[in-house]
Automatic annotation (TrEMBL):
GO terms for biological process: lipid oxidation. This is LOXE3 isomerase. Pathway: Lipid metabolism. InterPro entries: LipOase, LipOase_C, LipOase_C_sf, LipOase_mml, PLAT/LH2_dom, PLAT/LH2_dom_sf, PLAT_LOX_verte. Residues 2-114 form the PLAT domain. It holds the Pfam family PLAT. The keyword Transmembrane does not apply. Its main location: cytoplasm. SUPFAM superfamilies: Lipase/lipooxygenase domain (PLAT/LH2 domain), Lipoxigenase. It is found in: Cytoplasm. GO terms for cellular component: cytoplasm.
Length: 219
């Protein structure tokens, strides 16, 4: 009997947690574990620890599979990373940093960087092939118009996977920044101005106020 200590971390951003069921499978060079339930409730910024019992030593852990199941309502989950400690004390890290949506299984490689020629196991070669195929399907290009640069072949960003879309946090910050800038320009007399500028000095005065606030905020 071999026992592996597993720690699963949830991202700390808003709505990263989930009440859907999450389970895990450890894949080693000698075999793989049974699918083991981690939890039915994950909170943002928190970790869940569990023990995975196997009938034999799995060897070096090369992959993990995260399985997400919804019981009633869909609740997306953002996995930060997974850490696995083998019976001999070896620590394996699996950086995930992605959203899991719907009923899905996601495979995550061990965190040490490897080139294609380093993949000696067939399971790693297959994982790399599937990952490449998924990327090719996600990033399809089209010509918007003759002579224009190519763009993604989607009609809306909402057709993209959540992991490709602009992050919710950045989108919220960007929207807030636009509102702030719009209000600043309005109060400065830049927006809704119906008359021409009287001089370049007047323009410099208005824009210098905005630039001063931006520079001060960066400092």
């Amino acid at each position: 009997m071999a026992t592996y200590k597993v720690t699963v971390a949830t991202g700390d951003m808003a709505e990263a947690g989930t009440n859907n069921s999450i389970s895990i499978t450890l894949v080693g060079s000698y075999g793989e574990s049974r699918q083991t339930t981690v939890s039915f409730l994950f909170l943002p910024g928190k970790e869940k620890s569990l023990s995975v019992h196997c009938g034999q030593d799995l060897g070096p852990i090369v992959l993990i599979r995260l399985h997400k199941w919804r019981l009633f309502l869909e609740d997306a989950w953002f996995c930060k990373d997974v850490r696995v400690t083998a019976p001999n004390g070896t620590l394996y890290r699996f950086p995930c940093y992605q959203w899991l949506e719907g009923i899905t299984t996601v495979e995550v490689r061990e965190g040490s960087g490897k080139k294609l020629v380093d993949d000696k196991l067939q399971i790693l070669k297959e994982h790399r092939r599937r990952e490449l195929t998924a990327r090719q399907e996600a990033y399809r290009w089209k010509n918007f118009a003759q002579g224009w640069p190519r763009c993604l072949n989607v009609d809306s960003i909402f057709e993209l996977d959540s992991n490709i879309q602009f992050s919710r946090i950045r989108a919220s910050n960007f929207t807030g920044f636009l509102i702030f800038q719009g209000a600043s320009h309005f109060l400065s007399g830049f927006l809704l101005r119906r008359s021409s500028w009287n001089s370049l000095d007047e323009m410099r005065t208005i824009f210098s106020r905005t630039q001063g606030r931006d520079i001060g905020g960066c400092l």
